[in-house]
From TrEMBL:
<feature type="domain" description="4Fe-4S ferredoxin-type">
    <location>
        <begin position="215"/>
        <end position="244"/>
    </location>
</feature>
<protein>
    <submittedName>
        <fullName>Nitrate reductase subunit beta</fullName>
        <ecNumber>1.7.99.4</ecNumber>
    </submittedName>
</protein>
<dbReference type="GO" id="GO:0030313">
    <property type="term" value="C:cell envelope"/>
</dbReference>
<dbReference type="GO" id="GO:0008940">
    <property type="term" value="F:nitrate reductase activity"/>
</dbReference>
<keyword id="KW-0408">Iron</keyword>
<dbReference type="GO" id="GO:0009061">
    <property type="term" value="P:anaerobic respiration"/>
</dbReference>
<dbReference type="GO" id="GO:0016020">
    <property type="term" value="C:membrane"/>
</dbReference>
<dbReference type="InterPro" id="IPR006547">
    <property type="entry name" value="NO3_Rdtase_bsu"/>
</dbReference>
<keyword id="KW-0813">Transport</keyword>
<keyword id="KW-0249">Electron transport</keyword>
<dbReference type="GO" id="GO:0046872">
    <property type="term" value="F:metal ion binding"/>
</dbReference>
<keyword id="KW-0411">Iron-sulfur</keyword>
<feature type="domain" description="4Fe-4S ferredoxin-type">
    <location>
        <begin position="181"/>
        <end position="214"/>
    </location>
</feature>
<dbReference type="GO" id="GO:0009055">
    <property type="term" value="F:electron transfer activity"/>
</dbReference>
<dbReference type="InterPro" id="IPR017896">
    <property type="entry name" value="4Fe4S_Fe-S-bd"/>
</dbReference>
<dbReference type="Pfam" id="PF14711">
    <property type="entry name" value="Nitr_red_bet_C"/>
</dbReference>
<dbReference type="GO" id="GO:0051539">
    <property type="term" value="F:4 iron, 4 sulfur cluster binding"/>
</dbReference>
Amino acid sequence: MPRDHVTVGRVMAQIAMVMNLDKCIGCHTCSVTCKQTWTNRTGVEYAWFNNVETKPGVGYPRRYEDQEQWKGGWALDRRGRLVLRSGGRVRRLLSLFSNPDLPAIEDYYEPVTYDYDNLVSAPAGDDMPVARPRSVLTGRPTAITWGANWEDGLGGAPENAGGDPNLSGAWAEKVRFEFEQTFLFHLPRLCEHCLNPACVSACPSGAMYKRVEDGIVLVDQDRCRGWRMCVTACPYKKVYVNHATGKAEKCTFCFPRVEAGQPTVCSETCVGRLRYLGLLLYDADRVGEAAATEDDQDLLDAQRGVFLDPRDPAVRAAARASGIPEDWLDAARRSPVYDLVARHKVALPLHPEYRTLPMVWYVPPLSPVLDAVDAAGGDQDDPDHVFAAVTRLRIPLEYLAELFTAGDTGVVAGVLMKLTALRSYMRGRALGEEGGEAALAAAGLTAREAEDLHRLLAVAKYADRYVVPAAHKEDAAALTATEDRCPVESPGGPGPREVMLGIPALRRDTPAGGRP
């Protein structure tokens, strides 16, 4: 049935992000500014709410994508119901005081300081004084053997990158780490602020919650008791424990800035201008059904099916009935995130098979396809030649598919074809050459759509990249309330006690992200 004829259910709004990986140069400015804003204090020295990983690589914390080991995200039981990978009633109770599925500090890295005083207080002698590293945790001398940025630019890749969980298929044999044969790209990561957050459902104390107004996932520090179930349940391992306070902390999506209509710090300071922020409208009644889609490779389409067209009069009317302000509807209509995710469909989610329905999406990196066409003696304007080159790129399609489409290489190839056709067409226009429309048509683009997509991906201005509606003063009480925060605590849905005992947090009448 066409989406236009589907009855619109409960309309809700979500602040979301898209990152264009072709523009990321791995400068880590986003990580540094986030660190200075949110984790530059005692207890979270090892925590990076935003970090930039080099792929292929084992990531931060080490091998966080291996859910067989860490038990993050959701899975389907034998009856097709969503259950937390971290376990049900008995497992939760037995591991309440000793959770076995937690990364150790060695998987993150041991934060260090240095004996700087030794540089100025050492007695005169023949040897140059040095500032030896000391552990911030123990105060004892230590050796630096790992870090959040240890694999930057494939540093140490021959020894470590083979442990990347995405290199588990038979195709991985063609991945080589010799200088002439290797590939790399940068992957910025932060909390996904999922529509179906596993961390929220796993929290025994109800401290973790998803705001009804804008979908941002936060931690109530007063309620947090340090059970650390949220750390296990998050498949992206973006929840950290402050070792000084014993409380959980995570990326806040810079909610004070977002409430003021400003972009997040990582977006504001991004050198490559690769981040896009915008509002998405979605049907809360369809979230549970989408997350419970049986085939992992169908989860991408299922999640896109949850999003609503902000230009549809029926959607706008339903949104008004749900209490969404008029300026928010206008922001949703102008959202670059909706255009990249749902309209042009060039942005993809990170590991949709975790079934959390993540809300940070990525435009996959595109190798120099046109150079590959020329090298093979092909015609850049021939869609068949271009597609053949796409399947032989230096960055394997299979690797990108493991990251963004649960292994479906066809979807990734389609996105790369669209991006390649766009580049070829716009380059031809700039050089005054004719043609290029055939490649556009083969990729499913019109000339007008190509111009709109080029405006977003290549030359988007500040106001086009960040369309963030400010919070309303009349909603201030709701933004700070503790009673009305997330459907896992809503009437008809499981409360914190039920969640701890393993009762599924998703029901068809109260899906995650839904309004009470």
